[in-house]
Amino acid sequence: MPEDQLNQYHEVLRSGFENDFDCKISNWSEYASKFAYKAMPAQDHWVKAGDTSLELCFILSGLLRVYYIDQAGNEVNQHFYLAGEVVAPVSAIVSDEPCQYFIQTLEDSELMLADYKALYKAGENDPEWLRLELKLMQRVFVKSARREARLLLGNAELRYKWFCKEYPELLERLTQYHVASFLGITPVSLSRLRNKLSK
């Protein structure tokens, strides 16, 4: 990849970090050098269950999903990530154990990937980066916690209404199968629910 193109991606990354997390990264070149560009086609896996991947991913474009395989062999969508968001196998990073879930592209995607340990080493004495890192991890955790709360506290109709309000863009980009899996219901139940709410 031409250096000027890579520099452009690094600037998109920097802008995404600083604007989204309300911070200023003064020593940016140190961190930018840790991120590499990767293009992935739709339906490809960035992380598979059992991998020991410790990378951090910033999405330049595309759509990714995190999902598990349950005991019955069904795919269970845990969350979706859009351009401008950060996704990482946090549980694997924190526990230093193999990942228990999959991270897959649902659309052709462009990613910026960095080894988490290399980033941590570069920023371990940098208060600005440590604050950013904490906010990144908090964002990933809160996103997951909100979904879990909705699954536990709301019925199917309330969960679907929450999804429509929280992620209107995804309604046009996801298949009914993926939405249903995320909400913890069957595609048939989702179809009935949509018909009911459209009347």
How helix-rich are the residues, as a percent range?
40-55%
In the predicted model, the low-confidence regions spanning at least 5 consecutive residues are none
**Structure classification:** alpha+beta
The count of helical stretches stands at: 9
The major beta sheet can be summarized as: 4 strands, antiparallel
Q: Numbering strands along the chain, what is their spatial order in the largest sheet? A: 1-8-3-6
Beta-strand segment tally: 8
User: What is the CA-CA span between the terminal residues?
Assistant: 52 Å
What is the helix/strand order? Answer: HHEEEEEEHEEHHHHHH
Mean pLDDT: 89
- Silhouette: elongated
β-sheet strand percentage: 15-25%
Radius of gyration: 18 Å
Q: What are the salient characteristics of this protein?
A:
4-stranded antiparallel β-sheet, about 200 residues, single chain, about 50% helix, alpha+beta, about 20% strand
Description:
By secondary structure, this protein is of the alpha+beta class. It is built from nine helices and eight strands. The protein has helices at residues 3-20, 28-32, 90-95, 116-123, 127-153, 156-166, 170-173, 176-183, 187-198; strands spanning 35-40, 45-47, 55-61, 63-69, 75-82, 86-87, 102-105, 109-115. Strands 1-8-3-6 form a four-stranded antiparallel β-sheet. A four-stranded antiparallel β-sheet has the order 2-7-4-5. The radius of gyration is 18 Å and the shape is elongated. The N and C termini lie far apart (52 Å).
